[in-house]
From TrEMBL:
It comes from the Eukaryota. SUPFAM superfamilies: NAD(P)-binding Rossmann-fold domains. The keyword Signal does not apply. Pathway: Lipid metabolism. The keyword Oxidoreductase applies. It comes from Sphagnum jensenii. This is Uncharacterized protein. Keywords: Fatty acid biosynthesis, Fatty acid metabolism, Lipid biosynthesis, Lipid metabolism, Oxidoreductase. Belongs to the short-chain dehydrogenases/reductases (SDR) family. FabI subfamily.
Length: 405
């Protein structure tokens, strides 16, 4: 193709020269006009012909700028900038995550510290409209904090704008329908004044308010006996963990799927304890996360075939959030991860938020039924390299050492 283009350029030159020679006998003024006319005619024809060439023709590569040293050294800091071109000023150097015109419902946001908040920010930065579902007893303090500006600093987006929340809904995902709510909860003062907060009612209210959504995020879990070893966990505590942390996702997708637009995305959050032993993460929560990952695969098939919806889950590393502090040893978990993960850096909530934005975008249109690990690679490790027992084995080999074949 490039050779053909060079031939066309040569033809332009020969034709222009011929036209000039033909006009040589004319007066100086006339010759000038003829040369101008001939050149304009030929070049117009040249541009007409070359305009039909494919846009991807590799004519020149001199305009491609190498990645700056700063960007190469700070990929995480630059990762959020991909959203800036969508919802603010500037242009992205790579593929933009464009969620303009999309609407997301994120269940389980009650403060500005957890993964749910980070996901809301990332989706908002990509252009999505944000709806939140907040646990009923936490709703009042959450809305008050929003209204008084206590979250303003953490609402700032990568482009300098602010996270805007279209509406906050009262939600208790442990109850599917009004008929499921026991009398003691109905009469509980922490639920006083709230209405339409079961999963079915919230889905119906969102439909009445907005018609449909494009993204559903499950960012909630609860294990009342999480600090107990599994052998000491009661049946009630075990089933409560499964109900709040796992079945709640099934319920959300069941009632929200009819208002999720075709091609939409659904996402949940899991943890490594689903497949590895994490002492101290008890009360049936490890079982709940294992069930959540299994359900993700089944729901991907069922919701994909019936509604055209993608279903994935993010296995996130330890984060110093308010919810994680309930476990009691979150600082130790973070220190362990930093010491043993392939990437020796503390996980940021935005790392999970950015991954969620990708999974909910058209860029991930063929990804479903998958567990995506966002934990600096800790899940891949089979040995604690900070252990004194293996310090010698994991140390860098000397130049004189040799490895037997």
């Amino acid at each position: 193709m490039a050779a053909s283009l060079l031939s066309m350029q040569a033809a332009v030159t020969r034709t222009a020269v011929s036209a000039t020679q033909t006009a040589a006998g004319a007066t100086s003024s006339s010759a000038s006009k003829v040369r101008l006319t001939a050149f304009s005619t030929v070049t117009s024809n040249f541009h007409l012909r070359t305009s039909m060439l494919p846009d991807t023709l590799p004519l020149r590569t001199t305009n491609v700028r190498p990645l700056s040293k700063k960007a190469a050294e700070e990929p995480r800091r630059n990762a959020g900038k991909v959203f800036a071109s969508v919802n603010g000023t500037g242009s992205s150097p790579g593929l933009p995550i464009d969620l303009r015109g999309k609407r997301a419902f994120i269940a389980g946001v009650a403060d500005d510290q957890g993964f749910g908040w980070a996901i809301a920010k990332a989706l908002s930065a990509a252009g999505a409209e944000i709806l939140l579902g907040t646990w009923v007893p936490a709703l009042n303090i959450f809305e008050t904090s929003l209204r008084r500006g206590k979250f303003d600093e953490s609402r700032v987006l990568p482009n300098g704008g602010m996270l805007e929340i279209a509406k906050v809904y009262a939600l208790d995902a442990v109850f599917d329908t009004p008929e499921d709510v026991p009398e003691d909860i109905k009469n509980n003062k922490r639920y006083a004044g709230a209405s339409n907060w079961t999963v079915q009612e919230v889905a119906e209210t969102v439909k009445a308010d907005y018609g449909s959504i494009d993204i559903l995020v499950h960012s909630l879990a609860n294990g009342p006996e999480v600090t107990k070893p599994l052998l000491e966990t009661s049946r009630k505590g075990y089933l409560a963990a499964i109900s709040a942390s796992t079945y709640s996702y099934v319920s959300l997708l069941k009632y929200f799927a009819p208002i999720l637009n075709h091609g939409g995305a659904s996402l949940s959050l899991t943890y490594l304890a689903s497949e590895r032993i994490i002492p101290g993460y008890g009360g049936g929560m490890s079982s709940a996360k294992a069930a959540l990952e299994s359900d993700t695969r089944v729901l991907a098939f069922e919701a994909g075939r019936k509604h055209g919806i993608r279903v994935n889950t993010i296995s996130a590393g330890p984060l110093r959030s308010r919810a994680a502090k309930a476990i009691g040893f979150i600082d130790d978990m973070i220190n362990y991860s930093t010491a043993n993960a392939p990437l020796q850096q503390e996980l940021k909530a935005d790392d999970v938020g950015n991954t969620a934005a990708f999974l909910c975008s058209p860029l991930a249109s063929a990804i479903t039924g998958t567990v995506i690990y966002v934990d600096n690679g800790l899940h891949a490790m089979g040995l604690a390299v900070d252990s004194p027992c293996v310090a010698k084995a994991t140390s860098a080999p000397s130049e004189k050492s040799s490895i037997p074949a």
